[in-house]
Design brief:
Largest sheet: 10 strands, mixed
Radius of gyration: 22 Å
Distance between the termini: 16 Å
Strand content: 5-15%
Length: 409
């Protein structure tokens, strides 16, 4: 909502020309150690590029509204892309993409579709996040293939003390959208350009979420146990400590597990699917580091030249080997340097393989994507706590988000 509101101001005020500069100015989301990694990437390409780190999407939007954007910027939240594109704040990249000789077939499945709005390309990914099922090999001998198998494991692996309080959980509560995605949810109809929040698949997906929580003692008990979890990064990560036997998470864990808990073994598998939908086998949920060019940018050619380099072998390896993100160029996924040479590399390789799955998916690019995801989470919570039925909860989402979407028709 905030993205749409700020950009509406931009449309009302009109865009001003940003000041010209000989140096390429980049605004990026990364801070701390990650910023140092990205700076090393920029130095490898062109030491004269300036980078402003730790930039929030709100700051970037304000710059777009004020007519003083950088030449190139990242989106911390990919769900903002649709609103930016719908409000004509971004430069379409299809002509630059074609002129650069880039080919869609060279990109991993799902890499470019999360960069398109109404058929036009508005971003280029520079590495992906790949969310799948992680499991503790000390607790889980064989990863669950289906949601039915996951449910049974949740029942068996949830442990309680003498007072009935949970001491170990089978599955850490996942993000609602990721669980819905694993269940084969349908969020959007491309042909009719209509929301499908209350689609039967989505209703079944929310039922699955509730079943998985019920299998572990019920939502209240699970939430009470999860409330005591520490931050993910560090040795206190509840999954690393064995407090959760499984979780939906991403490739950064491959490095973390050896950094923070040496010797701990984890396994990586696709997201489980409903047993009646074997075509969903191999599902992974994607995110990405999306780079965009402002519509009124003055360094368009120089900015896209960097993006073109970011898709080369040197560009992908320079970033992936240090940031531990998944390359979005298919040819780079088999690079030996990403798969061997460190104890955690073979584990990282599992994420590389799953990111190349034809079932790698993501949330649709919509101007109301942020609101839509928020409302789906609220709907899932309403069902988990018994306040609404799945049908009622998703009907509320359908009505509310559809009204907001109509403003963009």
């Amino acid at each position: 909502m905030r993205t749409a509101a700020l950009l509406a101001l931009a449309l009302a005020a009109g865009c001003k020309n940003s000041p010209s500069s000989n140096r390429l100015r980049v605004w990026s989301m990364w801070g701390g150690d990650e910023e140092e990694v990205f700076r090393s990437v920029l130095r490898a390409y062109d030491p004269t590029i300036t980078n402003l780190p730790s930039v929030s999407d709100d700051k970037t939007i304000r710059a777009l509204v004020a007519g003083a954007p950088p030449d190139l910027f990242t989106l911390k939240d990919p769900s903002a892309l649709g609103a930016l594109a719908a409000n004509k704040a971004l430069r379409p990249l299809d002509d630059l993409f074609a002129a650069a000789g880039l080919k869609e077939t060279d990109f991993t499945p799902g890499a470019l579709s999360q960069c398109r709005f109404r058929g036009k390309l508005y971003a280029i990914p520079y590495l992906l996040d790949c969310m799948v099922l992680l499991y503790n090999k000390k607790l889980v001998q064989e990863p669950p293939r289906t949601l039915e198998e996951l449910e049974e494991l949740c029942k068996r692996l949830t442990k309680r003390d003498s007072t009935g309080r949970i001491t170990q959980i089978g599955l850490r509560p996942p993000e609602a959208v990721q669980l819905l995605g694993a269940a084969g949810a349908r969020f959007w109809d491309e042909k009719t350009e209509r929301l499908t929040a209350d689609d039967p698949r989505n209703i079944e997906g929310i039922r699955w979420y509730k079943r998985l929580m019920d299998a572990q003692g019920g939502n209240e008990a699970v939430e009470a146990f999860s409330a005591g979890f520490a931050e993910d990064m560090g040795s206190s990560n509840p999954f690393f400590k064995g407090l959760a036997a499984m979780e939906f998470s991403g490739q950064w864990n491959a490095n973390w597990v050896f950094k923070y808990t040496p010797g701990e073994e984890i396994g990586v598998a696709p997201l489980p699917y409903p047993a009646d939908s074997p075509k969903l086998a191999g599902t992974a949920w994607l995110g990405g580091n999306l780079f965009c060019l402002p519509r009124e940018g003055k360094q368009t050619d120089a900015a896209f030249a960097f993006l073109k380099w970011s898709q080369t072998r040197a560009g992908q390896l320079t970033f992936a080997s240090t940031m531990h993100g998944v390359p979005n160029q298919r040819a780079i996924l088999q690079e030996p340097t990403l798969r061997t040479g460190a104890p955690w590399r073979p584990l990282f390789a599992r994420f590389l393989d799953l990111a190349d799955s034809p079932r790698a998916s993501h949330f649709p690019v919509l101007p109301v994507a942020a609101l839509y995801q928020s409302e789906l989470t609220a709907a899932c919570d309403a069902v988990r706590y018994g306040r609404k039925s799945p049908q009622e909860a998703l009907k509320t989402v359908q009505d509310k988000v559809s009204r907001e979407l109509e403003k963009y028709r």
